[in-house]
Amino acid sequence: MEIRRRVSVERNRLHFAAAHMATFAGECEPLHGHNYQLIIELEGELDDDSWVWDFGDLKRATKAIADELDHRFLLQRESRVLKIVEFADAWEVSFNERTFRFPKSDVAVLPIDNTTAERLAEWVGNRLWDYLQPKATAALRGLTVGVDEMPGQAGWFSVMAEPRVLS
Question: Which CATH class is domain 6-22+31-72+112-160?
Fold first, then answer.
């Protein structure tokens, strides 16, 4: 019998409002925004205190990441479709005849190719995994992140740890 333990934190304070324009099939959506909500599930073994992870710490770490995106334009820096130019004080983003110029202070520059919910979940997940790994007092098995663009519409990303070899 396999035993799996996990904790989850979601929504409530784990949210951000942001603008973006995703690309698909060589086209670009109009500039628009979402009130994103985050769903985090962390799977692992119990530590000496019988916890997978402290809920408060997991919420604080996730909220800090969400706060980096809150009230920003999400710029997919690695886009294969958008023309992106960096200026000293702004980012200019163009697609065909449309050009937008955003003050740098209003932009969250992300090393992703598209601002889909799936890519945002991956970016949040990798940031959170990097935070959790060095702090783990028991083996972490995996992390799943959901980015909810609107009720009933979410993109997901999971990362699984290398299996532990028991002696």
Answer: alpha beta
Q: Are 154 and 118 in contact (CB under 8 A)?
A: no
Write down the domain spans for the chain: 6-22+31-72+112-160
Q: For CA atoms 50, 55, 61, 65, give the dihedral sign.
A: positive
What are the φ and ψ backbone dihedral angles of 160, each rounded to 5 degrees? Answer: -115, 140
Instruction: Classify residue 132 by burial, with Cβ atoms within 10 Å: 0-12, 13-18, 19+.
Output: middle
Residue that the structure tokens 């005849």 belong to: 97
CA 80 from centre of chain: 20
Take residue 91 and report the two structure tokens written for it.
């980012």
**Tens place of pLDDT for every residue, the chain, 167 residues?**
888 899 999 988 999 999 999 999 999 999 999 999 999 999 999 999 999 999 999 999 999 999 999 999 999 999 999 999 999 999 999 999 999 999 999 999 999 999 999 999 999 999 999 999 999 888 899 999 999 999 899 999 999 987 554 44
Lateral strand order in the sheet of 6-20:
107-110, 72-76, 6-20, 32-44, 140-150, 153-160
Question: pTM for the complete prediction?
Answer: 0.93
